[in-house]
Amino acid sequence: MGFSTAAEFDQAYHTVQDTFASGATKDKGWRRQQLKRTWWMIEDNRDRLCAALYTDLHRHRQESIIADIGMLQKDILHTLQNLDKWTQDEIPTRWDPVNFLGNTRVRKEPKGVALIIGAWNYPILLTLQPMVAAIAAGCAIIVKPSDMALACQDVLVDIIPQYLDTSAVLVVTAGAQEMQHILDRPFDHIFYTGSGSVGKIIYAAAAKHLTPVTLELGGQAPAIVTPAADIDLSAKHIAATKFQNAGQICLNVNHVIVDPTVREAFVEKLGQYFDTFLGGRDNRPDYYTHIINERNFDRLDRLLRESSGQIVYGGQRDRATRFFAPTIVTGVQPSDSLFSEELFGPILPILDADLDGAFSITRKTGRPLGIYAFTHSEAEKRRVLNETQSGGVTFNDCTLHVLPSDAPFGGTGTSGFGYYHGPHGVREFSHLRTYINAMPSWVEGLLSARYPPYSLEKTNA
Ligand code: NAD
């Protein structure tokens, strides 16, 4: 399937503009109906979606159901259950007489027409979860799936118009070139998931129209292992996280910084767990995800070849199928090629440092989306929270902070800004519009200081 033409995009843009202006998407009944239809769209097309995920990523059905599809359906049900609560007016505290007498309210109004730009690594979840939040907020929407997961893009282009209101939720396809035309138009919100380099292009384009933006980016998330960790369980969690989607997860462990006193035991355990997950060191199981495309395969291949570290596990790879084995590299210095950018793949560099060294290395790589600290010392946990900055933190496991339904998810600094998940997503697509009624007329008698001619006696000043 080719990309949308400029004329097709313009038509879609005017359609959603007109629909939003009509007020149709503000109706709570409409929002509920679209959310239910989104749930059924996923349910009815599970097999097609799993097949597309296999085509694009060679991802096993179980992983696709749990991570892409299951999380999305859970989020839709949670949103339906809480729609009224999350979208109702807020009443500021009553102690202020202006609030009390004026009956102040904060209305959550949809921002307008939202553009949602998806990423390829979870091409269903990361495109449709923001869409769910935008529908719940009452926005009209243009959805732009990633052009790097083409099979998933094609399924979304086919099913979205079959299930959702074609005057209010439209899907367009675009690569980098077509995006220039799309980003020329003013939107009321842009929600972007992807790399920081493209994030800057989106942000600059949005600035021309003063369009608010959510940037869900990535970064070099470290796992920090101290001597106060359970070494076996740390290795298990880190290996399992790196195995998932072959490391192509924004929240994934990019590298491990391990205290030198426990490094040897930790690396040995890591290898054992990769053996278990692969079903044998040289096995290439069908349930292991491959690298999305040759460009990313070549990038990982080059970073590994240029590294001065030692490959102590894995390293096998095959460009034709884009299989890239989980690979442990020890003796990595902060100046190494493997440390020059977010890996977004199954290579796991190991750096030696104590907790102070881990903080200093982490501060030099921007602010990651997550930090995973493996320690059972409460004092060390407090230090992690106080002495580092990141989107979120998980102690003694990886990526868990993305899961709680109502907790905000988002980056900081180089990992982006803005939040979503649960009420935070609905808020991201909403404008908080305060309104107040004039105070009762009998209050006028107490307000003489408001009116000129001014005199200090009126205010006792
Ligand atoms: P990407 O930036 O290449 O692409 C993301 C989206 O931007 C795609 O829809 C793509 O079509 C579009 N795009 C590409 N070039 C463009 C351009 N020049 N102008 C306008 N739009 C353009 O990102 P990616 O490779 O798909 O994803 C990998 C990155 O995304 C990693 O850095 C990862 O950490 C991050 N990520 C973040 C999250 C999160 O939730 N924070 C989730 C997944 C991925």
Secondary structure layout plus pairing:
Layout: H1 6-22, H2 28-44, H3 46-57, H4 61-87, H5 97-102, E1 105-110, E2 113-117, H6 125-137, E3 140-144, H7 150-163, E4 169-171, H8 176-184, E5 189-193, H9 196-207, E6 213-216, E7 222-225, H10 231-243, E8 255-258, H11 263-278, H12 294-306, E9 310-313, E10 317-318, E11 323-324, E12 327-330, E13 347-352, H13 355-363, E14 370-374, H14 378-387, E15 392-395, E16 416-417, H15 423-428, E17 430-435, H16 456-459
Parallel strand pairs: 2-3, 2-5, 3-4, 5-6, 7-8, 7-14, 8-13, 12-13, 14-15
Antiparallel strand pairs: 1-17, 6-16, 9-12, 10-11
Helix pairs in contact: 2-4, 2-6, 2-7, 3-4, 3-7, 4-6, 10-11
Bound molecules: nicotinamide-adenine-dinucleotide.
The site of nicotinamide-adenine-dinucleotide (NAD) has 26 residues, from α8 and α9.
**Low-confidence parts lasting 5 or more residues at pLDDT below 50?**
none
Rough outline: globular
Strand order of the largest sheet: 9-12-13-8-7-14-15
Q: Gap between N and C termini, in Å?
A: 73 Å
Overall helicity: 40-55%
> What would the average pLDDT be, to the nearest integer?
95
Count of helical stretches: 16
Which structural category do the helix and sheet elements fall into? alpha/beta
Q: What compounds are bound to the protein?
A: nicotinamide-adenine-dinucleotide
Radius of gyration: 25 Å
Largest sheet: 7 strands, mixed
Overview of the structural elements:
- This protein has 461 residues and is of the alpha/beta class.
- The strands form four sheets. It has a seven-stranded mixed β-sheet, sandwiched between helices.
- The termini are far apart.
- The model has no long low-confidence stretch (mean pLDDT 95).
- Bound molecules: nicotinamide-adenine-dinucleotide.
- The site of nicotinamide-adenine-dinucleotide has 26 residues, from helix 8 and helix 9.
- One of its GO terms (biological process) is carotenoid biosynthetic process.
- One of its GO terms (molecular function) is aldehyde dehydrogenase (NAD+) activity.
- Keywords: Carotenoid biosynthesis, Oxidoreductase.
